[in-house]
Predict the structure.
Amino acid sequence: MSISTVTIKDKQESRQLEIKRMAIYKQSKIVEASDEQGKNYYIFFYNEQYLNYVSSEKITKRSHVSDSFQKGVTITPPHPIIETVLSHQPHFKKQSFNDLFKKLQQQYTLQETALIASYFESFIKKDKLLALIKTLFYKERRDGKLLSCYRILQVLKDFAPNHNLVDAFSGDIQFTKYDERYKHGDEAILAKDPIYVEKKLYSSKHHDHSFHKLEAIYNRQSRHLDLIAIYIPRVVHTQNIDDYRTLLSLISEQFGDVNTLPILEDLYKRGLELETLHHDLLDAYMEFGKLEDVLTLISEKELALEPSQYQELVTIVKQKEISADSIPPEELRKLILTLCESKDDQASDILHQAVTSLLQGHTLSYILEWAKPLRGIPTAEPILQNVDEMNDISEDPNQQRRLGELYHFFQHHHQAIECMSWDMELSKEDPQPVQWLAKLYHELGMEEEHKAYQQLYIDMVKRA
């Protein structure tokens, strides 16, 4: 089931929010949602572990939240990643930051605790967060854990590069030895700091070498959602069919028989221009009966349909009410052309419905212009000849009866009534326009008028 809302809870008060988007950035996931008044909330996760939620009208520039939505992978609902992350619990409970940070130190390393604390810069005073990170740093220093101190210092450098603690230890010989080993990519020491390694690789993930190293980390850590997430921009960047197939394979492995339409649409909107994607998306639109989307895609990408796709398109058309209100005129014409190309018998009926619909709000000259690409197609010609005749006689007072008959053919009863009423005035002794008026009012369900004209017709025939 598609998830479009999320429930938050503060003490005994629950509130349902509409999900707007999710950012996936390094180890964090942040859901942006809003309440009925339009107030924004941010729900934080470390990997897939819920942390806390906050409300805010403004996000600090160059903060973790801002970076996440600008530099990370942003997805919108419906999306299986969002649904997976949010389905772990029925609601998300608010807790104080003091309680949160106490729990973090019990569940995670102090480096991870420092990193998670930096996520909340837009919502907690920076001085308070800095004080917490300093406390964590000095705790490790007192315990003689210098490498752990250095890792926390790396977090602090990213969070507050000008902080006095960074300056104080930047030249300390105990830490400069780590600087050299980090700088020269000492695998033994970097293996103990996956957060730093991921940060470096993430910033250069468009390069194959960095990407595949990052991919290996995510596989090793069983971070399957993060792997899928980084493959999304990867596929768009490389436009590579193998990357695309790998992404679909990862999605299948993680989510099983999930509806892939939102994922395919997302890739298409991001600019993936693989013909395989276009046909996969077309098949998905057809599966869900999205006729307008089918026609738009066929038109935009000039897709040639397989015989099975033609048949599926015909099936969808038979289930839909075809009109210019439900389908834009250009897409409607594309549908008719597609059906005509497949030599489908229904093409003529669809064209009839299309002209009937277009007559509601367009002139005959517009319809003739719209129909130009259909000229010369045997299936379309009989319908278009009727439109040609309507256009030729529309201003001829002596052809009002024929014009009325043509309007009736296109199921425009009120225009037909106007034509027949005019003809009746011009041919006062002729019972035919009266008979037509009785018929038209009957078809409109206007029985009083029908009976009046029916009686008038009988009287005229008797007098003749």
User: Anything to note?
Assistant: Residues 397-463 form a domain with the Serine Threonine Protein Phosphatase 5, Tetratricopeptide repeat fold (CATH 1.25.40.10). Strands lie at 5-10, 13-25, 28-34, 40-46, 49-55, 73-75, 92-93. The chain has 25 helices and seven strands. The chain has a mean pLDDT of 91.
